[in-house]
Structures are given as structure tokens and as C-alpha cells.
């Protein structure tokens, strides 16, 4: 994949880049950014144990909440561009603060991040802009919730309004279960994120993730991706942050994509402008392709994880220019990302017990890895005192490969996974089942 040459003559200085965040997503962003020869150094705050295995990358140990220390450090490192990964930092206004101090920042301000940190606000936003989404009811008390649940003639989904690390959405099978979910949210389990509940019409269809890099007015799209949210094979078990992904998603044909752009993406950016929100960052559209067309399930104000690890290897060295152009508000909108014949897939290796309780601190052994068009992005790892790689999260490693078709991609990814071991390692064997022609033969 190569990005149109009109942007490769970018004259701006891009020597020192900072990526904020500590996941596989941020490591893959740093990896794609360092490909550009103008880039001398990519700093990660805080990064993880895999960050410094990436060319030109260095971790900075500093608490981003300590604003004075942060500013001093960024000035001394002469940072040219800041990319903010996680939603919490964006929701807390980190992008606004850094922009005010004169930095170029890729990531929306607090106002734009509201698309993700308040589900009820996002639903009202979509209603205002006539963007297709499931019907909804915003409720402020258990009494109100009870009334809606027991008088509804359609199945409902229950969602905590605020950020809940992907754990605030419930898909109940009955009205009683629905009520129990509402009770749990209002009980304070999610803190202030559960002060309001959104009850939503349950809709059906395959899900797809679409990412628009946005400069406030114009946007360009990254290749589409499909995530696998459920823990177990055949899409069973509890929801997770994501167990694997593939890109591009063949389900999104040119026609479907142009419908998504017209009915969802353009109206979203128009509505942001109407509300005076200058959105400079990525908008992640979590969509469901229903019988009546694409509908928005959720907005996020950040890249998806593991979609980002999957998509980044499809970017060429000009990717960092796109981020910079968004941060400066000077996308032309005609930048194109030319697809070649490569596709990409990612399988996540997790700790036993994830997404519930799990233990960490187990040594990770990595054997003979095929590294041609394959990457391992650490998601949750740390180093022991003597430099041994240890598990340090629910999602531990993102194993990513590219090739000319998905059968080859996943053959390589699973071959590499056989070379990786740690106590309690778990991964799904059926990532990409939708697009693997030889899927049943391999399993
Ligand atoms: P969210 O965090 O809002 O993306 O929700 C997590 C998951 O719950 C989504 O990826 C869907 O699989 C499912 N989901 C959310 N909203 C709905 C809905 N209205 N109808 C059916 N499934 C939903
Ligand atoms: N992969 C889903 C997410 O990042 O929310």
C-alpha cells in the first residue's frame, strides 16, 4: 500500500515524534511512524516492554498527569508531533492542553472525545444529524429503566453511558436479565460512568470498523477491518477488547463504503462542525451492516485495538504525514491510500482468565519466528529486573502477518504462535474464519 505521492513532499520537520499510550495499538503506531526517513526518534509515554524493540523507539518514564514535568520533557526533546492513543487521556483534555502549549497534536479535544465518553450524547448527536443507528432511550434511574424495559416490545441492549473499558455493554436474553444489567450499572459498579444508562434496540448483522483520519473538515479513510470481540471460537463467550482482526474487510464493497461515507461519515463531520467541534484525530466508526443498511453501533475517538496493529503494516512511510496534516488542519482530502494485493491479519495471545481475573508475571518464550511480513507488537508485557520478558496484562501479544490472501496470512500467524509460549497462553484458532477459504482444513 502506498500513499499518494502528493503528500510525500511534505516540507515540515518531523524528527521527534511522541506516542502516548502503553498498548499494542501504540507500538504499532510507533512502528509505522518510524518507517519515515525524516523521523529520527519515536518516544513512547509510557510504552511497554516491546516498545524499545522497535527501531528508533525509546520509552520515557514520566507521569502524564504531572503537566509541568511533561511540558519540560517535551520541550527538551523538541517534539514535533504528538499522537495520543487512549480515550481516557483524550477525554481528560490532554490534547487541548498540549495544543494550547503550541504542540501539533493528533487526537481530538475533550469536546470531540465526547463521541466516545458519553454514549447518550453520541446517540443524541446521531439523532440530530439523522445518522442511521439503533433506536434508544436515555434513562437516569432504575425506575425509568424498569418502565422502558417492561413496556418494550423489542429486545434491548443495556449500556453504561460513560467509559467502562469495554465492560459497560450488556446483551441480555430476557427482560429480567435486562433489568438486572440496569440494576448492576446503577449500583455504582462503573462509578460515574454508570450515572446514566442508554437502552438500545438490539440490531443484527456483521460488524466492521471504519477509521477516518480527520483534520477538522476533511478526512481520509484507512482500510476497513473486522474485529473479533468474543473470547471464544465461533464468536461465543464474553465480550473482550478484541481477540484478533483482519483488514481490509471484503464485506465492505465499494458500494457499501460509499453508502457509509454518504450516510454516516460525512454527516458526522458536518455535525461536528455545526457544533463547533474542531476534530483533529481519528474517528472510529463501529458499524453493523444490517438488512436495512449500515448503522452506527458506537463511535470511538481513537484507533481500535487490535484493528490498529492489523492496519498499520499496510501503511507506507508516508503515514506520519497524514497524522501531521490532520494535526495542522491541512488535509486536502484527495490524499489516497492505494491498495496493493496485500492483506493483513492479527491474532491476540491472552493471559488465562482474561477478560475476567488473570495472573501476570509469567516469562514469555519466543522461539523461531518467521519475521518476513510478520510483526509481534507487545500489548501487555514488562521486563523483569534481569531483562526477561514477562506477561503484564490480559492481552499480552499481538501476532500480525501480511500476505497476498488471508489463508497465507493466518497460516503464518498461527505458525508464529506455535513458537510463542507462556504459562496460561490462550488464543482463538478461528480468527479470520469469515475470510479463510481453507479454514476447516486447518483446524
Ligand atoms: P460497544 O461497546 O457499544 O461497541 O458494544 C460492544 C458490542 O456489543 C458491540 O461490538 C456489539 O457486538 C454489541 N452491541 C452494542 N450495541 C448493540 C446493539 N444496539 N445491538 C446489538 N448488538 C450491540
Ligand atoms: N477493538 C475494539 C476497540 O478497540 O474498542
Automatic annotation (TrEMBL):
PROSITE patterns: ATP_GRASP, GARS. Its cofactor is Mg(2+); Mn(2+). It comes from the Bacteria. SUPFAM superfamilies: Glutathione synthetase ATP-binding domain-like, PreATP-grasp domain, Rudiment single hybrid motif. One of its GO terms (biological process) is purine nucleobase biosynthetic process. Keywords: ATP-binding, Ligase, Manganese, Metal-binding, Nucleotide-binding, Purine biosynthesis. One of its GO terms (molecular function) is ATP binding. Pathway: Purine metabolism; IMP biosynthesis via de novo pathway; N(1)-(5-phospho-D-ribosyl)glycinamide from 5-phospho-alpha-D-ribose 1-diphosphate: step 2/2. It is an enzyme of class 6 (ligase). It catalyses: 5-phospho-beta-D-ribosylamine + glycine + ATP = N(1)-(5-phospho-beta-D-ribosyl)glycinamide + ADP + phosphate + H(+). Residues 123-328 form the ATP-grasp domain. Signal peptide: none annotated. The keyword Membrane does not apply. Its EC number is 6.3.4.13. HAMAP family: GARS. PANTHER family: PHOSPHORIBOSYLAMINE--GLYCINE LIGASE (PTHR43472), PHOSPHORIBOSYLAMINE--GLYCINE LIGASE, CHLOROPLASTIC (PTHR43472:SF1). NCBIfam families: purD. Belongs to the GARS family. This is Phosphoribosylamine--glycine ligase.
Amino acid at each position: 500500500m502506498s500513499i499518494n505521492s502528493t503528500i510525500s513532499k511534505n516540507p515540515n520537520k518531523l524528527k521527534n515524534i511522541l506516542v502516548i499510550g502503553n498498548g499494542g495499538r501504540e507500538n504499532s503506531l510507533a512502528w509505522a511512524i518510524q518507517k519515515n526517513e525524516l523521523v529520527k526518534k519515536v518516544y513512547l509515554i509510557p510504552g511497554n516492554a516491546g516498545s524499545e524493540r522497535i527501531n528508533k523507539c525509546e520509552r520515557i518514564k514520566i507521569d502524564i498527569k504531572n503537566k509541568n514535568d511533561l511540558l519540560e520533557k517535551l520541550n527538551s526533546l523538541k517534539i514535533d508531533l504528538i499522537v495520543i492513543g487512549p480515550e481516557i487521556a483524550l477525554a481528560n483534555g490532554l490534547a487541548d492542553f498540549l495544543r494550547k502549549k503550541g504542540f501539533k497534536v493528533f487526537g481530538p479535544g475533550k469536546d470531540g472525545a465526547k463521541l466516545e465518553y458519553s454514549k447518550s450524547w453520541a446517540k443524541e448527536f446521531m439523532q440530530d444529524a439523522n445518522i442511521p443507528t439503533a433506536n434508544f432511550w436515555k434513562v437516569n434511574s432504575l425506575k425509568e429503566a424498569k418502565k422502558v424495559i417492561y413496556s418494550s416490545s423489542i429486545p434491548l441492549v443495556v449500556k453504561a453511558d460513560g467509559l467502562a473499558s469495554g465492560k459497560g455493554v450488556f446483551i441480555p436474553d430476557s427482560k429480567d436479565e435486562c433489568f438486572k444489567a440496569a440494576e448492576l450499572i446503577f449500583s455504582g459498579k462503573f462509578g460515574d460512568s454508570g450515572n446514566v444508562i442508554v437502552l438500545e434496540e438490539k440490531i443484527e448483522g456483521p460488524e466492521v470498523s471504519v477509521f477516518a483520519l480527520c483534520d477538522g473538515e476533511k478526512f481520509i479513510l484507512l482500510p476497513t477491518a473486522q474485529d473479533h470481540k468474543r473470547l471464544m471460537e465461533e464468536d461465543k463467550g464474553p465480550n473482550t477488547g478484541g481477540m484478533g482482526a483482519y483488514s481490509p474487510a471484503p464485506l465492505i464493497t465499494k458500494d457499501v463504503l460509499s453508502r457509509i461515507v454518504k450516510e454516516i461519515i460525512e454527516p458526522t463531520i458536518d455535525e461536528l462542525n455545526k457544533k463547533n467541534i474542531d476534530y483533529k484525530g481519528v474517528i472510529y466508526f463501529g458499524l453493523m451492516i444490517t438488512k436495512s443498511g449500515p448503522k452506527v453501533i458506537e463511535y470511538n475517538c481513537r484507533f481500535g485495538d487490535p484493528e490498529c496493529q492489523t492496519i498499520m503494516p499496510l501503511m507506507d512511510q508516508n503515514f506520519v504525514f497524514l497524522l501531521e496534516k490532520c494535526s495542522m488542519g491541512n488535509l486536502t482530502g484527495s490524499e489516497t491510500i492505494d491498495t496493493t494485493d496485500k492483506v493483513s491479519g492479527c491474532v491476540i495471545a491472552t493471559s488465562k482468565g482474561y477478560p475476567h481475573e488473570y495472573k501476570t508475571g509469567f516469562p514469555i518464550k519466543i522461539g523461531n519466528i518467521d519475521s518476513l511480513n510478520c510483526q509481534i507488537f507487545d500489548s501487555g508485557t514488562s521486563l523483569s529486573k534481569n531483562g526477561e520478558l514477562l506477561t503484564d496484562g490480559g492481552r499480552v501479544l499481538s501476532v500480525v502477518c501480511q500476505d497476498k490472501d488471508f489463508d497465507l496470512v493466518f497460516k503464518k500467524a498461527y505458525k508464529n504462535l506455535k513458537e510463542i509460549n507462556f504459562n496460561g497462553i490462550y488464543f482463538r484458532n478461528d480468527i479470520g474464519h469469515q475470510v479463510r477459504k481453507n479454514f476447516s482444513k486447518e483446524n
